[in-house]
User: What shape does this take?
Amino acid sequence: MSSSRLPSEVRRAVRDVSPILLGIVPFGLVSGVAAVEAGLSPLQAVGLSVVVFAGASQLAMVDLLGRNAELVVVFLTAVVINLRMLMYSASIAPYFRDFRTRWKTVSSYLLVDQAYALAIARYNEPGDGDGPTKRERRIYYLTVAFSLWSVWQVCAIVGIALGAGVPQSWGLEFAVPLVFLALLVPAVSNRPSLAAAVVGGGVAVAGEVVPVAGGTGLPFNLGLVAGAVAGVLAGVVVSALGDTAVTTEASH
Assistant: This one.
């Protein structure tokens, strides 16, 4: 089928998401390699990637599983990291209100940062009359989201296959921390995000190395959870203080 026969929203979605797909390839590969390195079987690693489908929390879960953390801690960490999805859902829900239940279910499963960002930008594009129709909104979002899902899963499976063939002596434990650094640096673009990164990272590291109750680090590998919560709170506080300062200046 020629591209000209594809719906315009499909062509637009593919054009918009293509640069992002290139960026998630290395992260998908590393997630697969890291899952095998953490001790998961190839089948378990594929299942984790398909069921969770969330880059940052998926890598955090793999890291904790590799350190034999309690499953409740692994689950709690994923929930804390993915709390932002609640805000995404609340923001994008009005555009999906008229969707049938099955489409809402599929859309919620495929919701990730990039899909949300592109969809919201498309739906609120200036100079587009009343905006895209219900059908156009659904086509655009699902094309973007399914493209992201497909590339992530393929790359994860390739990473799993590569990881299964890498000798243990190679020691690929460094892969996950490097990926988190690669995700962190571009995200630090303002004071709240800087505060979240510094406080969250500091608390997470302290939670792993500071002597607690006769041992080293927080029990049950809770350092990452504590860091995530502290980082979120720090970002919220700094953002609120900034808003207060702006309001005060405006009142003068």
The chain has two domains: 3-185, 188-252. Residues 188-252 form one domain. The chain has a mean pLDDT of 80.
